[in-house]
Every structure is written in structure tokens, then in C-alpha cells.
Amino acid sequence: MAKLSLFDRRTRRVRTAIKARAGGKPRLSVHRSGRHIYAQVIDDAAGKTVASASTLDKDVGSKALGKTGATAEAAADVGKRVAEAATKAGVTKVVFDRGGFLFHGRVKALADAAREGGLEF
């Protein structure tokens, strides 16, 4: 088996911990690229995405995207929109899956906005 990168090792560690304590709750998964940020509420039991939002969506203002990509302001907007879509689908309690990303900056802004939007985690 090939050696995993530090990012992949961190991702596996986070996902293993989440599965241990999820208790059947859907997970709010975050992916951050250099230019965009994506969020999905995933029901692992059914294998379906319940709600999603990203900076690629048409209704995100271009002012939220800086010259270098998504800002904390854009991430907060994505967090609010994914919380709104999840509550419409009937999901209020989730577990937060930050993947291999550290919990600060854009990831933290998204999480805080999702909490303000009504998601509990």
C-alpha cells in the first residue's frame, strides 16, 4: 500500500472519529479549494446528498469572491445557504466533517454561519 500524504491521513482520522460519534446523523462535509468552497449535507445511511451549496452557485455575489478566490465572507454565505437548504429538507442536527482542513479561516466561517442558520453540531 502506498504511503498516504499528511492531508489524506488527517482526512481519514477525522472521518473515522465522525463515524464513531455520528449516531446516524447526517454529516456536513466541507471541501475547500484554492478558489472555491463547497458544502454538502450527506446522509451516509442512504448514501444520498440531502443539501449542498458552493461558491459556484449562480446566486453568490461576485463581490464575495476576491481576486484570489473565495473569502471568509463567501464561505459564510455558503454556510447560511447550506443550512437553509438542509432545514428545508428536514435536517437540523448534523456532525461537522472538516475533512483534512484545519478549523480556522474559511472553514470556521462556514461552520459558524451554518450554526447561525439553524444547524446544530
UniProtKB/TrEMBL annotation:
Q: What keywords appear on the UniProt entry?
A: Ribonucleoprotein, Ribosomal protein, RNA-binding, rRNA-binding
The UniProt record lists the keyword DNA-binding: no
GO CC, alphabetical = ribosome
Is Transmembrane one of the keywords? no
Name the Pfam families for this protein: Ribosomal_L18p (PF00861)
PANTHER family from the entry?
39S RIBOSOMAL PROTEIN L18, MITOCHONDRIAL, LARGE RIBOSOMAL SUBUNIT PROTEIN UL18M
Q: How does it assemble?
A: Part of the 50S ribosomal subunit; part of the 5S rRNA/L5/L18/L25 subcomplex. Contacts the 5S and 23S rRNAs.
Instruction: Give the similarity note.
Output: Belongs to the universal ribosomal protein uL18 family.
Sum up the protein's function in the record's words: This is one of the proteins that bind and probably mediate the attachment of the 5S RNA into the large ribosomal subunit, where it forms part of the central protuberance.
Descriptive protein name: Large ribosomal subunit protein uL18
Question: Source species, please?
Answer: Sphingobium lignivorans
Q: What is the lineage of its organism?
A: Bacteria, Pseudomonadati, Pseudomonadota, Alphaproteobacteria, Sphingomonadales
